């Protein structure tokens, strides 16, 4: 109930008590008890108390502050007791009671109306509250939906961003993988290209030798060689357009194998031609000897038929008769020695030093006045060892069933050897270990399984020869174009030389075979060795070997030190100089190891250079007017003025690896 209804109940209760008291005393009241002219209620009360039977009236409860508030609003009449009956008072009482009843009804009606209004207000309030709650719930639902939509939208955006980022990452990974594949393919094709170039150069040199020897024309071989080169150029062009796949690598490998096969076929034909020509020369020599014997017999018979008075020939006539047979003998000897050296008169042959070709030491001779015997003995020792190894591996080289094994061995050696560089000590160590471990018998993994030098009794000798040859080829190809590449290659060569002395001898054999000037000897055919770039690369590698240390693990001792450079420089300048090649070799040798020789020999080295400048340059100026001689003279002038030669770039520190 509301607060107004509670106030009404509290106000009605005193009136009901008053009326109840009036009813109880109505029989005793005879006169008015209300009015201003009546005596004080206290006096009347004392009289009434004395006349009654001392009826005790129950004391009222103390009024609460709430009751006091209500009584202040109502006027409660004080009924004075009277012994006489007053009908007017009774009537007034009845009227008062009726009025009270009416008032009660009005009050109830008013209370009911108030309750109805309050209920209506409560219902309206409840309805408004419910409506507000519905609106609030709807608002919250809408807000939640909006928040959910925003969350979903944000999640979708984040998901899209993550998907985009993932897609970019995947695209980057695919691009990186593609680039790695392209780089790997390019490196593989580059290695194949290097191998192909080496094989091509070998075939070209063989064909050039055949052409120089005036053998049969090699049109078929030239066409095959041109066709292989064109096919490899097509592969290179496809790589330049980013069109490289595993098929291209297979084709490049196949072309290298075809080039190898073509080289073997040409070599076999060349060997057959040489044998046939040697046989023809021997047959011609035999016929000439027979003719010489017949001529001598005829001369003896003619001298035997003397007249009765014989006229003996004078010394002058006999001296004139002897030279008729001498040119024939000289021609025979010259034919045995070489097929490309032009014939010279006998007097000239006696004056000029005989030229020696390192490939055929059995048919060559050296002039002891220009080449020391110790040098020739050392060369003969190296070449005999080389020939012994070559003869021993011929069964393996000619066996067609072992072609796959030979190719696997070549691949196991060429791949790490072609990758030698001074990028880092670890890189150089890795390439050395791969070559050394393979030569030492450790299996090498291939696409078809594995290969080892122990798979064939001649495998180790074959691989030693192949390794030494490939290292020398590095001088002809890579080092001739990049001088700084000589020092990491030389460091690996020295390290292998210390552990495998046989390899060192074979390395020197191939050096002397490709450049006999480093013995020093002069080949019979100067044109054959007059490729300046190739000879410069070999000389640079040869010089770098003498001043480069190997691994620290093998110790500081060097198998082929600077004393060989001093010996070569002193002996080479005693030979007659040749155009371009002589100045080129001396220049490369001094540019590579002149700094070390200056530090090692000091004043003695200066005296040697002064001697060369005074004695050798005059001879060199008579036959050479090209750029190498000019550069060599400038090097000498700078040294004699500054008393030092610049240290070559690319040298490795003593403790590099």
UniProtKB/TrEMBL annotation:
**Bias-annotated ranges (Low complexity):** 329-364
GO cellular component terms, alphabetically, are: cytoplasm; nuclear pore cytoplasmic filaments
UniProt key word Nucleus = yes
Q: Where is the composition biased (Basic and acidic residues)?
A: 53-68
Q: Which Pfam families match?
A: GLE1
GO molecular function of the protein, one example?
Answer: inositol hexakisphosphate binding
Q: Where in the cell is it found?
A: Nucleus, Nuclear pore complex
Annotated region Disordered: where?
30-68, 329-367
Q: Which InterPro entries match?
A: GLE1 (IPR012476), GLE1-like_sf (IPR038506)
**Is Hydrolase included in the keywords of this UniProt record?**
no
The alphabetized list of GO BP terms reads: poly(A)+ mRNA export from nucleus; protein transport
Q: Which UniProt keywords apply?
A: Coiled coil, mRNA transport, Nuclear pore complex, Nucleus, Protein transport, Translocation, Transport
Instruction: List, alphabetically, the Gene3D superfamilies matched.
Output: GLE1-like
Indicate where this protein is primarily found. nucleus
Q: Which residues form a coiled coil?
A: 97-132
In terms of PANTHER family, this protein maps to: GLE-1-RELATED, MRNA EXPORT FACTOR GLE1
Family from the record: Belongs to the GLE1 family.
UniProt function note: Required for the export of mRNAs containing poly(A) tails from the nucleus into the cytoplasm. May be involved in the terminal step of the mRNA transport through the nuclear pore complex (NPC).
By what name is this protein known? mRNA export factor GLE1
- Please name the source species: Ceratitis capitata (Mediterranean fruit fly)
